[in-house]
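Hi support team,

I've been running sequence recovery on a batch of backbones for a student project. Most finish fine, but this one hangs at about 90% for roughly twenty minutes before it completes. I'm not sure whether the input is malformed or the queue is just slow. I've pasted the structure tokens below so you can try to reproduce it. Let me know if you need the job ID as well.

Thanks,
M.K.
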């Protein structure tokens, strides 16, 4: 049996295991979240950030609690994962100078009480607004960033962490593993009483080419520690792990949430529709929790790539989506600018569209769609004979930065879509995803064989809502 969360804690839906349940109600997780440094960047105003997410009906964010620190200017001039002198992490500073990022080294035998006050307040403010927080304990350590981690040998007074960056995700360095386990246990103990937390173990575990078998054993040890820790505490939380080539916990009953990143197989990461196709049978929620980092990796129109990725994944059966957003920073915690307003609106529209269905009764549908003239990307979910949600877009994959994203292919499209619907009468509504404007509505009758519908003209993407006539 899959290990699920306690009652009221964010976990797997009792009605449909492909979706989440929170405080007794089904919930979709959709967001455009800051670059995971909202906790460790002491000057970042997360209350203003949460207010913006809530304004657009977005309900999910992610954090790295302190094991990974990035270098200033690595991706953008201002980045929450590279807080410089304003950094705060779980470990207290010592009296000994010499940390490469500025200030004194860390004392791994002492916790920083100010950090945990901030962490708990972060979760509390998120919970007030119905926002779920995914706490990702680790990321792979690139050689450049490894020296900035408090767990690196020259960053702490204990001299712990003598391995190279690839060795960080193994059990080889026993003294380092001991500190990693203490860190996981401490974060879990401090956050156990919150219902809005998900625990993820490691992002991108083999991107620095740590051997897969070693990573697998290391993650397994981290999972066992999390479970042993929670077994002594009042609440159980959903555990998550990213899917990668060679690191696959999708069928492990200890893991309740399958995490994916990017729209395809990119480097060693498996995400998007390929992940849905290959993992849907596990009957667990599947989440895409990272996309191409805007505006760092993509210097053109941000609204479209965010919308294409999000709508395709969620209308294809995904449970959660996060578009990685570099606009939320210390100098602008609300992320206010024209580009970002369009991104957030597109995601708000997606949630509105999906919640216009009784989506908890719907599952990924690989059979109803038969053909589309001219070719395009088509995904759908349905409750056959009653309700169908379809999303069509025109684009091509572009492997830019560290992950694949969609390059929009604008044009004038009026494709014919062939479907095989159950016998009955239906109302078909064609919707513009960017605005939710209705482009056309028509009634059709299906005899249970192939039936053709013609889309109204659009220039990039279109959503189709089909309801049995008596549901209208």
């Amino acid at each position: 049996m899959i290990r699920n969360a306690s009652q009221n804690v964010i976990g797997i839906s009792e009605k449909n295991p492909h979706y989440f349940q929170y405080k007794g109600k089904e919930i979709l997780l959709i967001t455009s979240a800051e670059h995971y440094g909202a906790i460790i960047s002491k000057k970042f105003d997360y209350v203003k950030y949460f207010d913006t997410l809530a304004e657009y009906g977005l309900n999910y964010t992610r954090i790295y609690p302190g094991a990974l620190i990035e270098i200033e200017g690595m991706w953008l001039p201002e980045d929450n994962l590279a807080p410089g002198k304003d950094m705060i992490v779980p470990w207290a500073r010592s009296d000994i100078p010499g940390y490469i990022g500025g200030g004194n080294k860390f004392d791994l035998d002492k916790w920083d009480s100010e950090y945990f006050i901030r962490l708990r307040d972060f979760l509390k403010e998120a919970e007030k607004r119905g926002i779920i927080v995914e706490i990702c304990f680790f990321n792979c350590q690139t050689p450049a960033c490894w020296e900035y981690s408090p767990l690196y040998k020259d960053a702490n007074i204990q001299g712990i962490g003598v391995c190279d960056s690839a060795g960080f995700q193994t059990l080889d360095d026993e003294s380092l593993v001991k500190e990693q386990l203490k860190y996981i246990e401490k974060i879990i103990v401090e956050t156990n009483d919150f219902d809005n937390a998900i625990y993820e173990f490691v992002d991108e575990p083999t991107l620095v080419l740590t051997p897969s078998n070693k990573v697998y054993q290391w993650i397994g040890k981290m999972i066992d520690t999390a479970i042993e820790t929670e077994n002594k505490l009042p609440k159980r939380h959903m555990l998550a792990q990213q899917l990668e080539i060679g690191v696959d916990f999708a069928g492990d009953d200890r893991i309740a949430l399958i995490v994916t990143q990017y729209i395809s197989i990119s480097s060693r990461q498996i995400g998007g529709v390929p992940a849905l196709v290959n993992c849907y049978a596990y009957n667990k929620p599947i989440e895409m929790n990272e996309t191409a980092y805007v505006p760092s990796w993509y210097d053109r129109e941000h609204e479209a790539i965010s919308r294409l990725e999000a709508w395709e994944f969620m209308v294809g059966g995904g449970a959660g989506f996060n578009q990685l957003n570099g606009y939320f920073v210390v100098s602008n915690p609300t992320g206010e600018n024209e580009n970002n307003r369009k991104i957030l609106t597109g995601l708000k529209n997606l949630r509105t569209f999906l919640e216009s269905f009784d989506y908890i009764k719907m599952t990924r549908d690989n059979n109803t769609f038969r053909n589309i003239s001219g070719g395009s990307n088509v995904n759908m979910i349905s409750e056959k004979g009653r309700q169908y949600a379809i999303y069509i877009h025109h684009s091509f994959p572009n492997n830019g930065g560290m992950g694949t994203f969609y390059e929009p292919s604008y044009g004038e499209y009026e494709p014919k879509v062939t479907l095989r619907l159950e016998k009955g009468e239906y109302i078909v509504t064609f919707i513009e995803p960017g605005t939710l404007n209705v482009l056309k509505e028509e009634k059709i009758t299906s005899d249970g064989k192939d039936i053709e519908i013609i889309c109204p003209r659009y220039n990039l993407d279109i959503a189709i809502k089909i309801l049995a006539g008596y549901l209208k």
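--
Follow-up from support: It reproduced on our side and the slowdown came from queue contention, not your input. Residues 11-360 form a domain with the TIM Barrel fold (CATH 3.20.20.80). No action needed from you.
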